[in-house]
Amino acid sequence: xxxxxxxxxxxxxxxxxxxxxxxxxxxxxxxxxxxxxxxxxxxxxxxxxxxxxxxxxxxxxxxxxxxxxxxxxxxxxxxxxxxxxxxxxxxxxxxxxxxxxxxxxxxxxxxxxxxxxxxxxxxxxxxxxxxxxxxxxxxxxxxxxxxxxxxxxxxxxxxxxxxxxxxxxxxxxxxxxxxxxxxxxxxxxxxxxxxxxxxxxxxxxxxxxxxxxxxxxxxxxxxxxxxxxxxxxxxxxxxxxxxxxxxxxxxxxxxxxxxxxxxxxxxxxxxxxxxxxxxxxxxxxxxxxxxxxxxxxxxxxxxxxxxxxxxxxxxxxxxxxxxxxxxxxxxxxxxxxxxxxxxxxxxxxxxxxxxxxxxxxxxxxxxxxx
Length: 370
Hints:
Elements: H1 6-24, E1 29-44, H2 49-54, E2 65-80, E3 86-103, H3 105-116, E4 124-145, H4 148-151, E5 156-180, E6 188-196, E7 211-223, E8 228-255, E9 269-280, E10 285-292, E11 297-304, E12 307-319, E13 322-329, E14 334-339, E15 343-349, E16 359-369
Antiparallel strand pairs: 1-2, 1-16, 2-3, 3-4, 4-5, 5-6, 5-7, 6-8, 7-8, 8-9, 8-10, 10-11, 11-12, 12-13, 13-14, 14-15, 15-16
């Protein structure tokens, strides 16, 4: 099994061309910066975030989504003196873990009963959509300052497009729909359409090659320089994940002869499993920030699929070169942050006990310039 050569070659050719185009536009370097960061945004309705990884053993509430986006980034940025509006270029290496699960409340109750070995109180509708991957790659981009006067806009306006090429090592994409009957949790019926690098449901064995992915991000910022600053960040606004020999299963599953089957199977599971080319896409992420500069205050909006969050931040500078921040969010999170010229730390959680947090954000960064 192997990935068709044309796929990575086309991706690499486009990426190299973009990097060369970016490089030849550099005329005068003003400063150089290297940086690294670790970031996590996570939210889980049914159980604490850590239980989504280790097992549903903690407190449970029926919910409809679980989401996490974690990234480790190493990068270098060059500030430019370009007369045509180019302000900054950058190149980054990134490792990312992306988990986006949407499910019915009945599905969460059914899965919790399976984990606990308990019985269901009533019939439950089962529905699950999963988009999960682990990937590493390189991103390059540039910040451009637009001619605001020519556009009839006061203040300073910039845009920053970035393109990333990823190598995908793990993936799970699929959907499940059906019914679980009250009583013993072994009685259920469902249809399954599932693509994977490792089968977590029926344990079908495969040995797939890695996949490839392209993703486009776009950021924009406007400021009047005195009172207001508006920022917009769109991640994965356009993306495509090419999985040339993904494992797949399309099946009807009937556990323990259900009385309300949603499909017909000759055994516990009937269908087809194998390997095939598969193209996947992630849902984009939107971040919006509105800063009122005289108060050092900020309103934040975060949106991804079923997950939405509104926040308010306030910052202080107790001494020169150090900034402290506090935040409150619609997800019941409280946040604290610390920022220095070369070090940034931030955490936001809805519970001081990490093992009970359902909404947890963590970020840490180092930045050096010369």
